[in-house]
Amino acid sequence: MMDTDGIFDDLLDENSVFKNKEMLRPSYTPDKLPHRSDQINDIARILVPALRGETPSNILIYGKTGTGKTVAAKHIGRELEKKGEELNVNCSVIYLNCKVVDTQYRVLAHLARHFNKEVPLTGWPTDQVYQEFREVLDNKKRVVTIMLDEIDKIIGKSGDDILYHLSRINQDLKRAKVSIIGISNDLKFTDILDPRIKSSLGEEDIIFPPYNADQLRDILKQRSEPSIKEEAISDEVIPLCAAFAAQEHGDARRALDLLRVSGELAEKEGEKIKEKHVREAQDKIELDRVVEVVKTLPTQSKLVLLCIIKLKQFKDNDLTTGEVYEGYQELCKRTNMETLTQRRVTDLISELDMLGIINAVVVSKGRYGRTKEISLSISADEIKEVLLDDYRLSNLKNYNLSSSNQTKL
Q1: What angle do CA 37, 66, 148 make, to 5 degrees?
Q2: Which residues contact 319 (CB under 8 A, 6 or more apart)?
Q3: What is the DSSP annotation of 351-369?
Q4: Where, in this chain's numbering, is ATP bound (predicted)?
């Protein structure tokens, strides 16, 4: 019988490369943000009227993933509240991620609950929730800054009603004042807004540009010193993490993930972090990203991808659109699913190509017209398992397609 007494003591005693791994997570907000002083000063300049009890302008913050938008906004919000306490000015900052709090009702309910107003997360008319929030907000003199991260997500799902209400709420308040900070990866999301909302919401725009490799190296160095033991990391690791992330449009989040996962891989092997661990981490993170994308694909896209994987088991050369469509038709019959037209399947192939899951190159066949030559750009075995986890495709596990699209069991 295995003796498990003290099992965690044994694990804790193992040599760890980390001092504080949490500081390498994107959710951690550091005290200093390298290479973002201009943007931070711009936002602070816009928000400083709150410390005088006045209404700051609304702000829209744009930038690609991993350019420091969210961490900068949270950092400024924390400093604003701290300074407000020093000056005895009631400044509140409320952060909401619209990918999670993704409807007008949920946003208003969360805002009301922030001020200890009991509002159910479902069930009330939206107008009633708005009224409850407005009343509890206005029960004392205060300046409230509402940060809506990934603001484009709620617009895409629920429309712009929430922005209509929040951008005009000051007209209905007597004691409190509200400003809005919207954060988005999409520079064009305001194009779909009502012009009146766009005008009142986007009073100030601030752009966060991508980081370059040198800037990413500074960020990683700052985060690694308190989080990784000095003797546990090789000199080439941080520059390599920075170089890889710079290729991914200057993504600091990607750089931090690379460094953290490299450390986890090294720790598992009982080694210091080396170049090989960074390269392994790059592959692992990319695969994890693809797996998450594949899980959320529509069923028809999953079926097309599974068809490509099964055909590639019997064919070394690239597949043509026609071959994929014939195989797809066979799989539709097997699963009793609706068969889409070849044109629609070609569109799905293009979408898979855009996601980086496959490579689809248009080639000319002379007088026979044009077609796409299709190859996989991912690990087929890993993705196949994810696809077959979908109950609608599970009966295809042992069903194969030959290169000539003749099926066999």
Answers
A1: 80
A2: 308, 311, 312, 373, 374, 375
A3: HHHHTTSEEEEEEE-GGG-
A4: 67-71, 211, 223
Q: Which two tokens stand for residue 335?
A: 């699963």
Q: Is 182 annotated as a binding residue?
A: no
Any binding-site annotation on 117?
Answer: no
Taking CA atoms, 23 is separated from 11, 232, 256, in Å, by 21, 16, 9
What Cα–Cα distance (Å) separates residue 281 from each residue in 166, 214, 221, 273, 386? 42, 20, 18, 11, 20
* 368 known ligand binder: no
Coil/strand/helix, residue 295: helix
Residue 67 annotated as binding?
yes
* Paired tokens of 350: 């293009």
* Cα(130)–Cα(138) distance, integer angstroms: 12
Q: Where are the alpha helices (DSSP H) in 29-68?
A: 37-47
Name the token pair of 39: 């943007």
Q: Which residues contact 351 (CB under 8 A, 6 or more apart)?
A: 301
CB 254: neighbour CB atoms within 10 A? Answer: 24
- The annotation status of 69 as a binding-site residue, yes or no, is yes
Find out whether 63 is annotated in a ligand binding site: no
User: What amino acid occupies position 86?
Assistant: E
What is the length of the chain? 409
Alpha-carbon distance of 266 to 270, in angstroms, equals: 6
Q: How far is CA 246 from the centre of its chain?
A: 17
Residue with tokens 């398992």, as numbered in its chain: 385
Q: Please, what are the domains in the chain?
A: 36-207 (3.40.50.300), 211-293 (1.10.8.60), 297-408 (1.10.10.10)
